[in-house]
Amino acid sequence: MYRIRFHGRGGQGMKTASRILGTAFFLEGYEVQDAPRYGAERRGAPIFAYVRADRALINERGIIRHPDLVIVADDSLVPVPAAGVLAGITDHTLMLINSAEKADLWKERLNHSGAILTLPVVADVTDRGELPYVGAACAGAAARLTGVITEVALEQAIKNELAELGTAVVDKNLHNALAAYRAMASHAGQVEEGGLVSAAGYQIPDWIDLPFDDARISAPTIHAAATSVMVKTGLWRTQRPVIDYAHCKGCWWVCSSYCPDGAINIVEAKPVIDYDHCKGCMICVAQCPPHAIAAVPEKQAQEEEARSVIGESP
Amino acid sequence: MKRILLTGNGAAAWGARLATVDYVPAFPITPQTEIIETLANWIDAGEMAGRLVTMESEHSMITAAGSAAATGVRVFSATSSQGLLYAMEMLYTVSGWRAPFVLVNVSRGLSAPITLEPDHNDILAARDSGCLQIHCASCQEVLDSTLMAYRLAEDERVRLPVIVNLDGFYLSFTREPVEIPDADAARQFVGSFDAENIRFRASTPESQAVAVLGGGPYSYFRYETHLAAMNGLAVYDEIAEEFSECFGRKHEAVEAYRTDDADYLFVMMGSFATKAREAVDRLREEGWAVGLVRPRLLRPLPAAHLQLLLANRKGVAVIDQNISMGMGGVLHSELASVLYGRNDAPPVLASFIGGLGGRDISTEEFFEMAEMVRQAADTGVTPPPRLLYTKTELREVRKLQVIAQVERQQLGETDD
């Protein structure tokens, strides 16, 4: 059985990627299970989706514990614990990371004994509108890595899954997916199907008897106020609003009122964006009367920040 | 007939479409909303006849469903978790009206604490409502059971609402290959709804749901509802047989998987039972005589089927994805009552609680449950009920509690 997991951010098309790959397997005659997994979050938050494919009926269900292939659409998720990118990976797991950086560097960083490949689609994606196409590219790459999905099946899967979005969107996705499919030609078939859990010599679960705790401990109560401040929702951001104070007119009530997250504070009559909690919805960019707020890709903004920190060091 | 990839929610919507429902009162809730969205899109695009109305709550939604069913139209609705509980007053009421319709429930654990992931405490809260219950383990079963549910609900020997249950995430958002029956064949199988004497018309007013004073008449009406529910057993068997003849898939009241020569059995409901199927296959490879018994029908409870399937086994592991506070697993209690006093009852009926709030059950945990039941059969001592919960999980909770304690100290409490 193939067990494949896609990791990305809400809006990057991970559910679509799993559906394209699932349908492609299905067209090749496989039994398939594909599903997204997310909580109460929104665009930009980490999500994952998975695909199981086998020649026989699939009885396994739920999240994949030990994947054969992990595809990371957004390399900024690797260090985010909540994203669970590295959960259950073994030396059997092939990792494909959408990253401009070299595979060797990732191997060293992650100390991963299995194989790592990179798919540098991200280098071209600075436009927010392009982000949803990353999913199709990931599906295309995954299809080739399995070695059992033809280009014809991949094309048909994309047409089936995206037909409702119109031919322009289908064509764009086909272009990206097929480019990724071809880019992985030298690694075709590198993913190996994982085995089944054997009932001989299995690892005994470390069950415990749950002790009684009194209600002061065991009631699901949050004791402190304003704890949501501690959740750095700024991690969900793919685009960063940046205020150009040379053009800001100080009509701060506009941007701060429209901000759905209360992430624009007023300091000395000027708006200041709280980047720990700004989710990058860009409503302020759209609303700013003098157009003094720019949308900068988060990755680029972080790189500029890093450079300025290094530049300022003695 | 075509075979496509479909989510459990999509399969439920297809069931409603193929049953040619007339009216869909709706209210959104995760993880069910995709069902009513799908139906709304079809109706909007003219691909499906019928009318969908969004209500202001699940309480109104079930009232509308029961009222519409009483006028003789075919009704479909869907909900989940807190929504089902909000509708609870009306679930009991509309079954008392003997208004037949089909409600899909997408199981999700109940608050508090709140969760989005599945367990069966929501659907089991409706256990005694007079609504019949069919529990599904695959997306195919969701579609097929929805069609079968209309036959069951509308049968003149039954005339009760039927709830088709599927697990959130594990089925609701998971695509699997599903055969979509031919529309004509499905229409022919479901037939038309002959409302007979319960037909309510504005021009010929009558009273539904009268008040009765005194226990005599009240008992009569309540027990008649019980008898109708019990009739559901034979009716379901007939429908399953006919469905099998029409579509080639047999959904018996109780699934029996590799049970013929089994000394040991897993018993559980819902989609997690396919995990047990997987464990059975792996254990069989190692020479174990083990099988799975899965009640599809929970109300009415197919007691005779269960007695037959559990008879003369050495040991049974009952895995409840629910918990009745102060008692334990609901299915375990029900099986114990079904088996009580029978000479052929298995000597070991062990209770396990697992999968609460979508907590996964690993294949290794199934192996270990089988091992515990085997040891219990050897020693004759049934182990106490066990929650499937690991040291690692408790350690994670303890970490969160440390944070909570720090918060308390910051708030100035010093007694911890």
Topology:
The complex is a heterodimer of chains A (314) and B (416).
Chain A: E1 2-9, H1 14-27, E2 31-37, E3 46-54, E4 69-72, E5 94-97, H2 103-110, E6 116-118, H3 133-146, H4 151-162, H5 167-183, H6 215-218, E7 239-243, H7 252-258, E8 264-267, E9 270-273, H8 283-287, E10 293-297, H9 298-312
Parallel strand pairs in A: 1-4, 4-5, 5-6
Antiparallel strand pairs in A: 1-3, 2-3, 7-10, 8-9
Helix pairs in contact in A: 1-3, 1-4, 3-5, 4-5
Chain B: E1 2-7, H1 8-18, E2 23-26, H2 33-44, E3 51-54, H3 58-70, E4 76-79, H4 81-86, H5 88-97, E5 102-107, H6 121-125, E6 132-135, H7 139-154, E7 162-167, E8 175-180, H8 183-190, H9 215-247, E9 254-257, E10 264-267, H10 273-285, E11 290-295, E12 297-299, H11 303-310, E13 315-320, H12 330-339, E14 348-353, H13 363-379, E15 386-387, H14 391-410
Parallel strand pairs in B: 2-3, 4-5, 5-7, 6-7, 10-11, 10-13, 13-14, 14-15
Antiparallel strand pairs in B: 1-8, 6-12, 9-11
Helix pairs in contact in B: 1-2, 1-7, 3-5, 7-9, 10-13
The quaternary structure here is: heterodimer
Instruction: Please report the distance between the alpha carbons of the first and last residues of chain A.
Output: 55 Å
Q: Any idea what the radius of gyration of chain B is?
A: 22 Å
| Helicity of chain B, as a percent range | 40-55%
Proportion of strand residues of chain B: 15-25%
Largest interface between protein chains, with number of residues from each side: A-B, 41 and 47 residues
Mean of all residue-level pLDDT scores of chain B? 95
- What is the helix tally of chain A? 9
Summarize the helix and strand pattern of chain B as letters.
EHEHEHEHHEHEHEEHHEEHEEHEHEHEH
Strand composition percent of chain A? 15-25%
Mean pLDDT of chain A: 91
DSSP summary: helix tally of chain B: 14
What does the largest sheet of chain A look like?
A: 6 strands, mixed
Main β-sheet description of chain B: 6 strands, mixed
Radius of gyration of chain A: 22 Å
Strand order within the widest sheet of chain A? 2-3-1-4-5-6
The count of DSSP E runs of length 2 or more, i.e. the number of strands of chain B, is 15
SS elements, strand count of chain A:
10
Question: How would you classify the helix and strand content of chain B by structural class?
Answer: alpha/beta
The proportion of residues forming helix of chain A, as a percent range, comes to 25-40%
Order of helix and strand elements from N to C terminus of chain A:
EHEEEEHEHHHHEHEEHEH
